[in-house]
Specification:
mainly beta; Jelly Rolls; two-stranded antiparallel ribbon; 7 strands; MAM_dom; MALR1 protein; ConA-like_dom_sf; MAM_domain-containing
């Protein structure tokens, strides 16, 4: 069956992400926060919440890590869709894959913002024979 989870940061941080204090640099805010663009979420709602990189971390890196996903097989492929916004001051947004019992994080997608200051959507498909985090 479909185990599709939709997450919008309205009530919590989604099961995908641990508490934000484990991820310095990320803050939960909305378009009314007075922190500059974006002034709305991907659907145009100015009171809807999203995660944003704090200006203090403008020139360093900050990570968000999901919880553990189970291995995939022919019947269970993992598809993750997310919306993101890259402003003029940002660097590169990267999605990495870390399989359990491996130390390395493999970069599976990135965008350095050719089309800046607009919401974009991305879907990535993940196959892994081991438990993994994104």
């Amino acid at each position: 069956g479909s185990s599709c989870e939709k997450c919008d940061f309205e009530t919590d941080l989604c099961n995908a992400f641990n508490e934000l204090n484990l991820h310095p640099g990320w803050i939960k805010r909305n378009g009314r926060s007075g922190m500059g663009p974006p002034y709305f979420d991907h659907s145009g709602n100015d009171s809807a919440y999203f995660l944003s990189l704090s200006s203090e971390f403008r020139y360093s890196s900050a990570t968000l890590r999901t919880n553990v996903f189970l291995p995939t097989d022919k019947e269970h492929v993992c598809q993750i869709t997310f919306h993101y916004w890259i402003s003029q001051m940002s660097g590169t947004l990267m999605v990495g894959l870390q399989k359990h019992y491996e130390d390395t994080i493999t970069n599976i997608w990135q965008d350095s913002g050719e089309l800046q200051n607009q919401w974009k959507s991305q879907t990535i498909i993940i196959n892994s024979t081991k438990k993994y985090e994104v």
